[in-house]
């Protein structure tokens, strides 16, 4: 069985420099992983990339996600 690669986490360019309220993401072909950067050992949200992109688009437009 192949070992999956380690996630390459990155922070949003909108994250504050003070270390508060940061979200980190990692992308794979079939998943977008999201976690709280202050709790890297904590839970990780795993969603389809299309769903994450729709959510981000809704946030950018200021409208509720559907």
From TrEMBL:
Lineage: Bacteria, Bacillati, Actinomycetota, Actinomycetes, Kitasatosporales
Alphabetical list of Pfam families matching this protein: DUF397 (PF04149)
InterPro entries associated with the record: DUF397 (IPR007278)
Ranges of residues in domain DUF397: 8-60
Name of the protein in question: DUF397 domain-containing protein
Organism: Streptomyces parvulus
